[in-house]
Amino acid sequence: MAGDKMSELLRGPRYRIWQNRAGTSAIEFAFVAPLFLMFFFGMTAYGIYFGASHSVQQIAADAARTAIAGLGEAERSALAADFINRNAGGYPFVDPHNIVAHTYGSADDDNQFVVAIRYDARTLPIWNLLDGLPLPGMTITRQSTIRIGGI
Predict the structure, then answer these.
(1) Is residue 130 part of a domain?
(2) Any idea what the Cα angle at residue 117 is, between residues 112 and 121, rounded to 5°?
(3) Which among 22, 40, 49, 51 would be 20 to 30 A from 7, CA to CA?
(4) Single pTM value for the model
(5) How far is CA 28 from the centre of its chain?
(6) CB of 70 closer than 8 Å to CB of 76
């Protein structure tokens, strides 16, 4: 008799609920999807930020290489500024209106010329992806130094 009760319980509607596996994929997706989306948006946000950062560094390096053709510090500064004004829009993730460039001779060595760029990265689309993402600062600062005279 006890065996009949047990077999009846195993065949009852409550036990059939535990045997039904139709919704397990939906439950697993509900657990994994938020984590996956956070990783995806985080990788996308940092990829865009690193792309912009690399572009700003490349602009500084190219401007410094262009400035080496100048004969004096004023001409070098003008060449670097002209390069930045003409070419900054061609780099990915960079809005040329958000660039502030400074050029100067190095305080440590008279034979060096420095191009420093500060980029306001607030216009990048990454700030609206997710509120919970830990994101880097909104200002990207890079510089490039070039030796004058090839010494």
Answers:
(1) yes
(2) 160
(3) 22
(4) 0.75
(5) 30
(6) yes
